[in-house]
């Protein structure tokens, strides 16, 4: 099957007074229609900037996509005009954020915002769009949708706002939905409901999903492919079974060990990876993980590892291989 999304050597840098921050520095991955991929890594690993680059929403300046290609349905979206991109954004590619207020407009009712998208992208008549907005709110599990549709975002609870944002994101039946830590701020029950909602989207509409998370439990439940990022670079890319069953990168090992093991004794509960991520303004020609790695060799201090395909579909950037 042809790829829906192909990200090739993406580099997104930030030009600050203190220096160039290489927030994303050579990311590669691809996604087929209907597939779900997780992007995991600590904060500052470049997960969100990768997503914003795909949406072409990187704040410019100080940010800039300095290199790479992003093919969506075979078209390099980095070469589209802003006008053409607006037709794709919110229509073929949608994004949901950790904080719904980032994408909900506080001065419009939830219904008005959904209707706006339906009229602009799907060329619906107003009346038809209002009926569709109610249906969408029902679909994401908002009770009394018919009256709720006329409420403002601040009249919704946190969990309902998240649902409203998802309703808006799926209004135009996007081929790709990017979710940036959509459940982090929510309590466990609502988290589970939102994940269910995403699973249904995938099942019923064949929506491809990129799930950005630091929660490997979410990855295990939802994703087929996983990209592990560290310091702006991809360190491991594989299917979810291999990630948990046969992970190869020392950073991935560290992430897996840092999952809380509820039933183990206290000492084994949390095993944070020692040390700190490198300063993205001062990246050296070494492995970015070298100062935290228990397996480093001489070459790791001298040369940045390039990704190798260890098995079909399993790519790892590490000198151990
Ligand atoms: Fe560790 Fe070397 Fe692999 Fe980097 S390249 S993760 S330092 S073994
Ligand atoms: Mg983030």
TrEMBL record:
Coiled coil stretches, renumbered: none
Pfam family, any one: ABC_tran
Localization (cell): Cell membrane
Membrane topology (UniProt): Peripheral membrane protein
Cellular component, GO, one term: plasma membrane
GO MF assignments: ATP binding; ATP hydrolysis activity
SMART domains in the record: AAA
Cited PROSITE patterns: ABC_TRANSPORTER_1 (PS00211), ABC_TRANSPORTER_2 (PS50893)
Domain ABC transporter: 5-256
UniProt entry keywords in alphabetical sequence: ATP-binding, Cell membrane, Membrane, Nucleotide-binding, Transport
GO BP annotations listed: peptide transport
Cross-referenced Gene3D superfamilies: P-loop containing nucleotide triphosphate hydrolases (3.40.50.300)
Family per similarity comment: Belongs to the ABC transporter superfamily.
Protein name: Oligopeptide/dipeptide ABC transporter ATPase
Species for this entry: Calderihabitans maritimus
